[in-house]
């Protein structure tokens, strides 16, 4: 039987072709001692097919809480007894947040609202915010406002939103265990409307909702099928008051396998670390992931949870861009096409330090 990493090397690295579901299951189950080799391969795939740049993004919640949907992981649902209460920011606060993101080196700023889909009033607010931000900040603007009609997607494109986020959250087969107030297909339809109006698509989800390894592989292949420009990778951060409050955190090694698997499923897609990264991976694991397949990160805080300080994320991005790392870690990356001089993957010392 051909070794799975040899298959991945030929398909993903040499040909830019994503692995299929059965191959991804093997990747997600790879032995601990081969994890450094897997991450090294995923990094080489990223460098060859995406380049060396690492993207930093800021994110702000225009409307927090009070959402009518029942996404079981989300503290913004108005159906659960969570500590989050409905709050709406004003335009000046959005502009200031965009300025701070730009100051820290972010190239993208995402405006988010906790809604099933936008009302016309909300779209008008977003249009006002986009205009105000563009007048004062040199940054690309994306949005995440729930399910869109074709006309709503057209309005966002005309106002200057370049990328739209709407996550699948999980595999289609597991989705009914996570959300019951709308369907997986409705989310897919939204992405098709976004593409039809010329915006880029951003679609990912959350690792650790209770899905099986097979469903995790299914999820990666379903994302690959729609060819999103960006895939946010969240790791479950169990929120008080939600149905998933007692779910366990994703173990670090499992999280790193998922990062590599998603890269091998989508060789040329921007893969962005998002919510829960600091819990599942920690500081060193985040850097290992950025040198093991991921090439983007949301800097600072998330929508309802604290992330790492934006400065810390900026420093991590700088170290990865320079090919360096924290003292005591070995993060020297083998250039694409260059043979390794030892039997270990080039991330061996890093993983051993985690």
From TrEMBL:
| Any GO molecular function | biotin synthase activity
Question: So, what pathway does this thing act in?
Answer: Cofactor biosynthesis; biotin biosynthesis; biotin from 7,8-diaminononanoate: step 2/2
What CDD domains has UniProt attached to this entry? Radical_SAM
Among SUPFAM superfamilies, the record links this protein to: Radical SAM enzymes (SSF102114)
Which PROSITE patterns has this protein been placed in?
RADICAL_SAM
**Gene3D superfamilies, A to Z:** Aldolase class I (3.20.20.70)
- List residues of the Radical SAM core domain: 52-277
What family is it from? Belongs to the radical SAM superfamily. Biotin synthase family.
Indicate what this protein is called per its UniProt record: Biotin synthase
The protein's organism comes out as Corynebacterium coyleae
Q: Which gene encodes it?
A: bioB
